[in-house]
Input
Amino acid sequence: MEPLRIGVLAVQGNFREHTKMLRRLGAAVVEVRKPEQLEGLDGLVIPGGESTTFMRLMRLYGLDAALAAFDRPMFGTCAGMIVLDRNHLGLVDISVRRNAFGRQVASFETDLDVAGIDTPVRAVFIRAPWVEDVGPGVEVLAEVDGRPVLAREGRFLVAAFHPELTDDTRLHERFLDLVREESRVVRA
Output
């Protein structure tokens, strides 16, 4: 079986860490900087970084429209979650509050109980957002202090934290499972 072809948006942010983790899991990774690089991908990761910069660069390179038209699974982490929300690209029915946990000095790590995973997942929050509001089709998978920080809506998985900054591959594995699940549906 051929490896999954997963793109990682590489215009800004910590895309290298996602690339490394996905390759470790056997995916063929493409660093995406131009719209045409989305062709033939099975899924896409939008990493953490700075959401305003992401949006500006995506508009500049035509990636905003290309991502809106991309019909494969996406995994947005930290700024990537913000980019996907209803106030930016409008692909996930959530509203996100930027830097909700505080400034850089308020960054923290914690163990999260995640729906469908038996043992806690270590989560790194750096100037992290949280989900303020979820639409009816959004499944909240983890919370911190009653605030959603991990959610799924259909082919989208979003996290307010940085799973790529730990050695725990389970959330990336969950994303690859989502990609496989969606591929079967599309090919059927």
